[in-house]
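Hi V.,

You were right to ask for the full record rather than a summary. Here it is.
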Amino acid sequence: MLPRTLVTACSPSLRRLFALNDEGITCLEAYRSSTPKSDSANPVIFDALQHLPDHAIGAEAVGFLVAGSDTTAFTLTSAIWHMSQNPSIKCKLAAALKEAIPEQCEGEYPTLMQLEAIPYLVACAKESLRIALPVPGRLPRVVPGATAPPLVVDDKVVPPGSIVGMSAYTMHNNEAVWGSNAREFEPERWLGEGAKGLDEQLVAFSTGARNCIGQPLAQAELLMTFSMLFRNFDVELDAVCEKGFTTKDRFIASVKGTGVVLRLRRI
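Predicted structure:
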């Protein structure tokens, strides 16, 4: 194995990766030296990993950090691109935010509970997760063994031990569920009687026992970012990205190039 000093000198990318891993260990050390520790009613991830060696715990900490950053960043980028070029959505969202938050003093922000009580804002967040889901591909799962009930799909039994998966992208674009405008950004689909049952079809965070542990945080980030941006600014796309943007899928979707460039005018 090459010495770390040599590797970092030759590769700036690996230098940053090593620094990220070091941050995970630093967080673990800070947790162990903190007083008091987290209690049983409010555990943190480190509480469940004490049986692992330190390097593995640090790697898990980094995994949580990364999983909660570029995923949400992609959803925000893609959703803001859709929303900022649609005057109807912008106006409805701004009006809903102004009605719910009529006055805002400098440095004061609405609480998460206030934001969750704004139906159109919540609808925009859900539609963002549907259209701009950050993990569009299949997530593999192993069919349980003989002691579990058989897995039956379309009247066919899938043998235990089989590796199966579903495509979130396919589910989120299924016209049988979402209608003929399934590929359009349409927050109204989440409002009224037609919205019943749609939450069960939203699988941006996967579903079941292995769903994403960070989804409450991600949802809060969407609500807070959208409220801050569209409550305070008239948002327009800069000419450099008016023709859209292209994405790449490397398990987690990302935007090619510089992302979305905006022009903001305070309102």
